[in-house]
């Protein structure tokens, strides 16, 4: 969300930022709505000023014993005219706010330009992809071979893009989530939160999923929305609040189920657990001062990387280009984990600096210690990391020729000391 005053001050810079994201110029239409709103408000104010003058004249006429009927009629007419002007102002403001709410965030200066993921810029790699002396299998073949990953029964229960995990694989997913939470809270200073999984319209609007991406969400008959990520409730915890400077940064983490309709993903990743309607994710959210958000993005990304390093999962970090960033982000790092079964890197975490884009939508501010008034906070979010995709990566990177899975050492305390997951005896 943008301050219309910023667009008024430099419409060319605003349109240039949108052009980097492949979005057509918007300043002219936005400023026309703004001018309509301001003109209607000015008209209403002028009418009220004139009515005040006429009301004073009516009082003076009555004191002199003169007829004031004509002035009274003019006052009545002016009330109708003022109400009409105010209604035009409200209509223009509603149109302006809706238009502003559907415009993506402007990219940071150091984000590479590009139309799609082919222009993303690799920053670094960690780890060496395993060299198996056998043909690597994909996670769904491994899980079904173990008898612990069932897509058919899930489809019977819920339809496509769901899975039932059982036995040690179910425990492995739980272990991954607990390991991530313990790491982020004990070592990186995040406060664990258990938020609601159902939220109101205002929460999804605050983080940018509404109104533009309603079709990507699941909505209940009561009008609540299933969260697509814990970013939504965690970030909105500061909505409509003025925070103390000394309380920043706020760092929060949560493990939740996440729900996405995948409306725009028809035909993509229909096999396995990569793209599901319901999945588990550990989310990281930071609320910072504006000057601190670039460093916080680097910190958050390192926190997510640490999880993968301790699980011995090779990965790379890429900076998303302007055409591949999410709606609310001004800069994003994607962490892509190596999947031997697919013989390529796949996204497992996105860490984004949203600047004050979400804060303006949520009306989340802070009071600087060294200045008067309030300022909008900056918000950041990142996967710390996607639990289901990490399970996929563990299965594929730690598979053995017989189809068994070596449990990463960092997870063994959470698995009761189990070192290898094997299937049932023939």
Question: Main sheet?
Answer: 8 strands, mixed
Radius of gyration using CA atoms only:
28 Å
Rounded average pLDDT: 93
CATH superfamily of the largest domain: Bira Bifunctional Protein, Domain 2
CATH architecture of the largest domain: 2-Layer Sandwich
Helix content: 25-40%
CATH topology category name of the largest domain: BirA Bifunctional Protein, domain 2
Overall tally of structural domains: 2
Trace the largest sheet across and list its strands: 1-11-12-13-16-10-9-4
The helix count comes to: 12
Task: State the end-to-end CA separation.
Answer: 59 Å
Unreliable stretches (pLDDT < 50, length at least 5) are none
Number of strands: 18
- Listing every helix as H and every strand as E from the N terminus to the C terminus, the arrangement reads HHHHEHEHEHEEHEEHEEEHEEEHEEEHEE
**Could you say which overall geometry the principal axes of the C-alpha atoms support?**
elongated
Task: Provide an overview of this structure.
This protein has helices at 4-9, 11-20, 27-63, 69-101, 139-146, 151-158, 167-186, 201-207, 231-236, 293-310, 357-362, 387-397; strands spanning 121-126, 149-150, 164-165, 191-192, 198-199, 218-219, 225-226, 242-244, 250-259, 278-288, 315-319, 331-339, 344-353, 365-367, 375-376, 378-386, 405-406, 420-421. With 426 residues, the protein is an alpha+beta fold. It has two domains: 4-101, Orthogonal Bundle (Helix Hairpins); 117-421, BirA Bifunctional Protein, domain 2, CATH 3.30.930.10. The strands form five sheets. Strands 1-11-12-13-16-10-9-4 form an eight-stranded mixed sheet. Strands 5-7-6 form a three-stranded antiparallel sheet. Strands 8-14-15 form a three-stranded mixed sheet, with no helix packed on it. A hairpin with a 5-residue loop joins β6 (218-219) and β7 (225-226). α3 runs antiparallel to α4, α5 packs across α12 and α7 packs across α12 (387-397). It is elongated, with a radius of gyration of 28 Å.
């Amino acid at each position: 969300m943008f301050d219309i005053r910023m667009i008024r001050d430099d419409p060319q810079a605003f349109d240039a930022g949108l052009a980097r994201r492949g979005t057509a110029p918007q300043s002219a239409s936005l400023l026309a709505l703004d001018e309509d709103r301001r003109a209607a408000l000015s008209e209403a104010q002028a009418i009220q000023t004139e009515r005040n003058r006429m009301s004073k004249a009516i009082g003076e006429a009555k004191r002199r014993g003169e007829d004031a009927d004509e002035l009274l009629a003019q006052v009545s007419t002016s009330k109708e005219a003022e109400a009409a002007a105010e209604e035009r102002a409200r209509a223009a403001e509603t149109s302006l706010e809706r238009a502003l709410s559907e415009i993506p965030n402007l990219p940071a200066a150091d984000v590479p330009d590009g139309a799609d993921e082919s222009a993303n810029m690799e920053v670094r790699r960690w780890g060496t992809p395993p060299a198996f002396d056998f043909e690597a299998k994909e996670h769904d073949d491994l899980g079904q071979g173990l008898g612990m990953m069932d897509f058919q029964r899930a489809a019977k229960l819920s339809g496509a893009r769901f899975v039932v995990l059982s036995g040690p694989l179910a425990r492995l997913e739980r272990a991954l989530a607990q390991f991530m939470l313990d790491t982020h809270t004990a070592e990186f200073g995040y406060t664990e939160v258990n938020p609601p999984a159902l939220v109101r319209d205002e929460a999804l609007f605050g983080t940018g999923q509404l109104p533009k991406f309603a079709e990507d969400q699941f909505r209940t008959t009561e009008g609540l929305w299933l969260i697509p990520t814990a970013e939504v409730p965690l970030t909105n915890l500061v909505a409509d609040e003025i925070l103390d400077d000394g309380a920043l940064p706020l760092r929060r983490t949560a493990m939740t189920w996440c729900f996405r309709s995948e409306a725009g993903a028809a035909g993509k990743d229909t096999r396995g657990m990569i793209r599901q309607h319901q999945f588990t994710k550990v989310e990281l959210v930071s609320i910072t001062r504006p000057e601190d958000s670039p460093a916080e993005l680097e910190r958050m990304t390192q926190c997510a990387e640490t999880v993968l390093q301790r699980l011995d999962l090779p990965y790379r970090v890429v900076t998303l280009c302007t055409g591949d960033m999410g709606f609310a982000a001004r800069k994003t790092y994607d962490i892509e984990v190596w999947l031997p079964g697919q013989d390529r890197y796949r996204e497992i975490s996105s860490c984004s600096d949203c600047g004050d884009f979400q804060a303006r939508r949520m009306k989340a501010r802070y009071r600087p210690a060294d200045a008067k008034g309030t300022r909008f906070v900056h918000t950041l979010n990142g996967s710390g990391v996607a639990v289901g995709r990490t399970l996929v990566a563990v299965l594929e990177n730690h598979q053995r020729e017989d189809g068994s899975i070596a449990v990463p050492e960092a997870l063994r305390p959470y698995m009761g000391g189990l070192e290898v997951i094997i299937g049932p005896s023939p």
